[in-house]
Each structure stands twice: as structure tokens, then as C-alpha cells.
Design goal:
474 residues; alpha+beta; 5-stranded mixed β-sheet; 3-stranded antiparallel β-sheet; 14 strands; binds protoporphyrin IX containing FE; Cyt_P450_E_grp-I; iron; oxidoreductase
Length: 474
């Protein structure tokens, strides 16, 4: 294919092309990157700002692992997000990052994960999601499945992060105050990244006008809400030092970290990480499955093979190989985090020869990487879980054949690989089993082709309207 690199002009850079493609930034960059010989290109933004995009696995390994110390979140990223995320793990580099990573990692040990999938996810599923689906099936209602899955994930992550249940997924699908303000704050902060002239937001912030004024208000609301819960927790602690709650906040409090601002930062980062990611993955997954009945049948065979009442738990969920492959395959095409950006600390040269100047922003692009023909073959556009599987003739079952995390960096890779990866898979597989065992999820509009949009994570534009059918043979 001929390369599609946009024209660039002095001072203005490629502003016209950027502007023209602003509604489909991710797909546009993906088309360009996959058309270049090295799977790498440099976008010239206005005023001399450069940004390198790459879908080259050797470059990704270089940035995320072998030269990890040269690629930070960096000051631009940190300053842009600081008003919302403070110094939470998502917005931290160096020692501060290391410390948070270390304390939080205990939240993801086998015992915590077991508890999470059996209790937190299990209860949300049986007490909330299944009754809502049953009701929709009986009344032939249309549900926005994206919204339902976001509510599910929000309840879950709040319980993990600070042992608080916002009860966002209840039959009336209420406006939960915390979720609402969190959403608004996120939308406003991502506008900073998407503005074409990078410093305009700073002027607006200094003057406290427009979107920056709204941002200030919503961020304050998020933080007040979080602080209130934290204060309650601290009080619980002072009354009962031996409290053995297993949420993340309790873990930080019991390790002696009681600085309210700092623990608020931590909690907010975790909510951001765990909230829209699994719901985005599942939304696209259910759409793809609805279009591929052969895949749906295989998944159901696997779930029923597990055979436990009320849906499979920890060990069985772990063993759902075909479902695991189907989730990997849907995230290859629709990665919840489509692009992730680092900043070079010093001058460097990437393995493909691309020269990187100190301070340059460099983004690896999982969305493009799932579309590279040389890697996935001529049928890359097809949803085919079997590309992740091998049939073991003697055992009579599938086994999973993973890709290395640099070819498939959907969860990032290297020292900062997603902390919640295993938790996310457990949660998603439990939801898939709990839903598909009993229901069919059918797009309300036949032949629907959703529009992929993204800020930090991806969404289906306008939601995913579905009808729910209860299986007669469940
Ligand atoms: C399908 C679901 C998920 C996907 C695709 C995903 C993907 C990612 C990606 C790409 C990053 C790197 C972001 C960056 O720094 O640019 C990341 C980081 C992170 N994720 Fe996930 N994530 C998922 C679910 C979760 C869940 C459920 C949790 C927590 C409960 C979680 C916790 C984290 C944390 C704490 C980090 C920061 C790690 C660090 O900087 O050291 N993630 N994730």
C-alpha cells in the first residue's frame, strides 16, 4: 500500500489533516502507521511539536522494557492530568510510582482475586445484572448494553478501590452522583489533550473560564466525594485498628499512609483504570459475538461444560480457554486503550532507526497493531478466536497460544504492564459466562455497525442498544 503520511507546512504542521480527521483520530493514525514500511511515523503538530506513532513491536519492546528508564509519562502528560489525578499511580513516575505499584500489587494476589471474582463480581452479577436482563427479556425492553456494563464495572471498581458500593447498576438505572461527576471530569480533562493548540487550556485555567471552569468544579466534586468516603474509613480504623477489609484504600491506610490527598489520588487513579476498560472490552465483545453465532456456540459449550450452579467460579473461570481467546480477539480489534503515550527523557534511536529527540512524545498504538497484516495475516479484519488456539487432539480440548506482550500491548508491557490484567480477565469471563449461559444479547438494530470513539478509553458512539432473549434451554 502507498504511504498515507499527511502533508506538513511550516509552523502549521499537519493541522489541516489533523482537523479533517479529528472525529476519527485513532483510525486515521492507524491507517497511516500501517501503510509505512517500518510501522512508524512522525506527526507534525502545529508550532513544531512532534509526536512519533509506532505499531512496530521491536520499538514497543524498546520503549516499554529494554529502555524503560528513558520513556516516562513525562511532564506534559503529568501537568495536563494533574488537576484530576494528582500524583496517583497513573500520573506518577520514578519512586512515587514504584511505591504505589508495590503496595497496590498485593491487591492483585491470588487470594484477593479469588475473593473478588467469587464475592464482588458474583454478587453484582446474580443480584443486579441477571435480574435486569431477565426483566428486559420479559418486557421486550431495549437496553443500552454499554451503559449497563459501565455501571457494572463502576460498582465493581469502587468496591475494590475503597470498599464502597455506589449501587449504580440497580433496576431503575439511576443517575449515581459519583459516577456522573467522575464522567464529567474525565470528559473535560481529555479536552485538554484534544485541543489543537496545546497551551490554550492553560490560559483558560488561569482565567477560570469555559471548559476549565467546569473542570475545576467537577474535579472538586469528585475529590470531595472520595474524601468523604476516606474520612469515614479512617474513622472506622481509629475505632477498630484490626479492621481486615480487603479493599485497596484499607491496604494503604493500614500500611501507615494516612495523608488524605495522597490516598484520594490513589483511589481516583484506580477507578479510572478499572472503570471503562473492562466495560469497553465487553461492549465490543458482545457485539462481535452477536454477529458470529459459531463463536457464540463454542462459548456456550465451554460454559456448560463447566457445569456449576449459578455460573463458574475462580478455577473454572480461569480454565475458560475458548472464551479467553475470544476476549483477546475482540480486544485485538477494539483495544480499550487504543493509544498510549510516553515522553523521551534523553535523545535516543529506536530499533527501526527512528531518531528520537529528548522531550519528544512517542505513542505506541495497540489499535493499529491489531491490524498489521504481516502479523495477523490477510484475514486480520475477521473476528476469529481460533487464531489464539490450538486443538489438542489427545486431550480433546483447546489450548491457548498467547502472543508476546510487545506484539499485543493491549495491557501495555514491561514494568508498567496493567496491574489489573488478571482481574480484568476474571471479571470479563465471569460476566460472559453469567450472561451467555442464560441470555442472548441481540442488537436492537439489525446489522448495526457501531462507531468507534475514544478519549482515554474507547466507546461505541451513542451506546449499544440491545434486546435480551432468555434461552429456553439454559
Ligand atoms: C480489559 C481491561 C483492561 C485493559 C485493556 C487495561 C489496559 C491498561 C493499559 C494499556 C495500561 C497502561 C496505561 C498507560 O500507562 O498508558 C494499564 C495500566 C493500569 N491498569 Fe489496566 N487495563 C484493564 C483493566 C484494569 C483493571 C480492572 C484494573 C484495576 C482494578 C487496572 C489497573 C491498572 C493500573 C493500576 C494501571 C497502572 C499501572 C502502572 O502504571 O504501573 N486495569 N491498563
Amino acid at each position: 500500500t502507498p504511504t498515507k503520511i499527511p502533508s506538513s507546512y511550516p509552523i502549521l504542521g499537519s493541522i489541516f489533516a489533523i482537523w479533517k480527521n479529528k472525529e476519527r483520530r485513532v483510525q486515521w493514525i492507524s491507517d497511516i502507521v500501517t501503510s509505512t514500511p517500518n510501522l512508524t511515523f512522525t506527526l507534525h503538530r502545529p508550532f513544531g511539536y512532534r509526536q512519533i506513532f509506532t505499531a512496530n513491536a521491536a520499538n514497543v519492546q524498546h520503549i516499554l522494557k529494554s529502555h524503560f528508564h528513558n520513556y516516562h509519562k513525562g511532564e506534559v502528560f503529568r501537568r495536563t492530568l494533574r488537576d484530576f489525578l494528582g500524583d496517583g499511580i497513573f500520573n506518577a513516575d520514578g519512586e512515587n510510582w514504584k511505591f504505589q505499584r508495590q503496595v497496590s500489587s498485593h491487591q492483585f494476589n491470588t487470594k484477593s482475586l479469588k475473593n473478588f471474582v467469587e464475592h464482588v463480581v458474583g454478587v453484582e452479577l446474580s443480584d443486579r445484572l441477571v435480574p435486569i436482563l431477565k426483566n428486559a427479556a420479559e418486557n421486550n425492553n431495549v437496553l443500552d448494553f454499554q451503559d449497563v456494563l459501565q455501571r457494572f464495572a463502576f460498582d465493581n471498581i469502587c468496591k475494590i478501590a475503597f470498599g464502597y458500593d455506589p449501587a449504580y447498576l440497580t433496576p431503575s438505572l439511576p443517575d449515581a452522583k459519583f459516577a456522573g461527576v467522575f464522567d464529567n471530569a474525565l470528559k473535560r480533562i481529555s479536552e485538554r489533550f484534544n485541543s489543537n493548540i496545546p497551551f490554550v487550556w492553560k490560559i483558560k485555567r488561569a482565567l477560570c473560564i469555559g471548559t476549565e471552569r467546569d473542570l475545576k468544579i467537577t474535579v472538586q466534586q469528585v475529590r470531595e466525594f472520595a474524601s468523604e468516603i476516606i474520612r469515614e474509613k479512617k474513622q472506622e480504623y481509629s475505632l477498630n485498628e484490626s479492621n481486615t477489609n480487603n479493599d485497596l484504600l484499607s491496604r494503604f491506610l493500614s500500611s501507615g499512609h494516612k495523608d488524605e490527598v495522597f490516598v484520594t489520588d490513589i483511589v481516583i487513579s484506580f477507578i479510572l483504570a478499572g472503570r471503562d476498560t473492562t466495560s469497553a472490552a465487553l461492549t465490543w465483545f458482545f457485539w462481535l459475538v452477536s454477529k458470529n453465532p459459531g463463536v457464540e456456540n463454542e462459548i456456550i459449550k465451554e460454559i456448560r461444560g463447566n457445569n456449576s450452579e449459578g455460573g463458574p467460579i475462580y478455577d473454572e473461570v480461569k480454565n475458560m480457554v475458548y472464551t479467553h481467546a475470544s476476549l483477546c480477539e475482540s480486544m485485538r480489534l477494539y483495544p480499550p486503550v487504543p493509544v498510549s503515550t510516553k515522553s523521551a527523557v534523553n535523545d535516543d534511536v529506536l530499533p527501526d532507526g527512528t531518531v528520537v529527540k529528548r522531550g519528544t512524545r512517542i505513542s505506541y498504538h495497540p489499535y493499529a497493531m491489531g491490524r498489521v497484516e504481516k502479523v495477523w495475516g490477510a484475514d486480520w479484519a475477521e473476528f476469529r478466536p481460533e487464531r489464539w488456539l490450538e486443538w489438542e487432539e489427545t486431550a480433546g480440548k483447546w489450548s491457548f497460544v498467547g502472543r508476546d506482550s510487545f506484539t499485543y500491548p493491549v495491557f501495555q508491557a514491561g514494568p508498567r504492564i496493567c496491574l489489573g490484567k488478571e482481574m480484568a480477565f476474571l471479571q470479563m469471563k465471569r460476566v460472559v459466562a453469567g450472561v451467555l449461559r442464560r441470555f442472548r444479547v441481540v442488537p436492537a438494530v439489525e446489522g448495526m455497525e457501531p462507531v468507534y470513539v475514544s478519549d482515554f478509553t474507547t466507546k461505541m458512539k451513542g451506546g449499544f442498544p440491545v434486546k435480551i432473549e432468555e434461552r429456553v434451554d439454559h
